[in-house]
Amino acid sequence: MSTVDGPTLMPDSESAKDAIDRDTRRGTRKRWAQPLRNKWNDLPRVQQWGFLLVVVAVAYLLPVINPLLITTEPGTDWPIACFQMSVFALGALGLNVVVGYAGLLDLGYVAFFAVGAYTAAMLTSPDSPFVHIPYLWTVPVAMAVTMFFGVILGVPTLRLRGDYLAIVTLGFGEIVRILATIIPAMKGQVGFQNVGRPPGSGADGVPIFSNSNGTPWYWLTLTVTIIVLLLAGNLERSRVGRAWVAIREDEDAAEIMGVPVFKYKVWAFAIGASVGGLSGALFAGANGFVNNQKFDVVTSILFLAAVILGGAGNKVGVLLGAALVVYIPLRFTAIAPYKYLIFGLALVVLMIFRPQGLFAARQRLLAYARAAYTRVARRDAAESPSQPSKREAK
Amino acid sequence: MSNQNPTSSAAPADRAARDMDPAIADVVAPERDIAVEVGENIMEIKNLSVKFGGLVALDDVSFTIKRGEILGLIGPNGAGKTTCFNVMTGVYKPTSGQVLLEGQSIGGKLRHQITRLGLARTFQNIRLFGEMTALENVVVGLDARHKTSVVGALLRLPRHRREERTAIERGMALLEFVGIADDAAMLSRHLSYGHQRRLEIARALATDPKVLCLDEPAAGFNPAEKEDLMALIRAIRSDGYTVLLIEHDMKLVMGVTDRIVVLEFGKKLADGLPVEIRNDPRVVAAYLGEPEDDVA
Question: What fold does the segment set A78-198+207-393 form as a domain?
Answer without folding.
Answer: ABC transporter involved in vitamin B12 uptake, BtuC (1.10.3470)
